Amino acid sequence: MRTIKLVFLLVVLVLPVSGFASSAEAVELLNKMNDAQQQLEYTGRLVFIKDGEPSILSIEQKIENGIRKETIVPLDEKEGYASEETSALSLNSFAPITSAMQDVYSFDLGEKDQVAGRPCQIIIARPKDRKRYLQKYCVDLEKNILLEYSLTNLERKPVERFMFTDFKVTNQYTGNTAPVSVSLAGEKPAPKEGENYHSKWGFNSLPVGFRRVKLSVKETMQSENKPQEEEHLIVTDGLSSVSIFIAKDGGKKIGSKNFVMNSGALNILTRFQGEYTITLVGEVPRGTLQDIYMGLRPLH
Predict the structure, then answer these.
(1) Do the domain assignments include residue 195?
(2) How confident is the model at residue 254, as a pLDDT?
(3) Which residues contact 202 (CB under 8 A, 6 or more apart)?
(4) pTM of the model
């Protein structure tokens, strides 16, 4: 009996150390992936699956004078030409892993796999609450580039996934690079940054792990051809981001019904508050959008 107790104690002592090592290796590999994304030029094709519907995309990243440019073109699988649809996919949307992110996600190594004929290591980012989705990566073991990625909802159903079917590194840049410029088929101009603009909105609270990281403002035309400012706030936990669009409509939509929409992992929540229409968009559970909205407040 004493021997059994001793063996059990050894197992209890050893398992956490193994777990910590796995977590540290997973974080290290994800950060290498982020570094590789900033230094590599590549081309490839991938399958993007949303709500069970697959689409084929071609992707290319070039680095010119230290500036990364990612071009993504949706292709018609049968004919092989660019479609008019756009893709929200970007390999440059992944950030380095911080200690704050490890407070709300656990990062663990999975099995090794093969994607596009290349060996890769599976990493699972498992949320510690129900405010965010489980994310799975498969990182190339030679070039540290992301070859496969999936999002799993609270019902443990994969709702979004992409995987390369063909991938080739064409060059490696050795200097520092600037933030990526993403070009999509049919893209629209991005709103101007509000560097000298003070937001009219703030937060009483945000879900654990989320923080505000960005503000921009653009002018929109109302029916009377009068320009109105629309604020765009972004909050993130490092892996998942939520965009908040706040537009003043003069109270014309008072009495309008609030509504929600869903597309793949993306949830959309629209609420009407006084003279404002507030829309939240993000690849997070609907309840998280509701919590963010409830914490939003005007600054007077």
Answers:
(1) no
(2) 55
(3) 296, 297, 299
(4) 0.79
Average pLDDT over all residues of the chain: 81
Residues 58 and 130 in one domain: yes
For residue 64, what is the domain's CATH number? 2.50.20.10
Q: How many domains does the chain have?
A: 2
* Residue 194 placed within a domain: no
| 188 burial level (CB within 10 Å; 0-12, 13-18, 19+) | exposed
What range does the domain containing 218 cover?
Answer: 201-298
Q: Residue 159 pairs with which residues in a beta bridge?
A: none
Same domain, 24 and 151: yes
- The 105-115 sheet, strands edge to edge: 105-115, 118-127, 134-140, 146-152, 158-172, 40-50, 53-64, 67-75, 178-184
| Side-chain half-sphere exposure of 290, counting CA atoms within 13 A | 9
Place of tokens 């440019």: 69
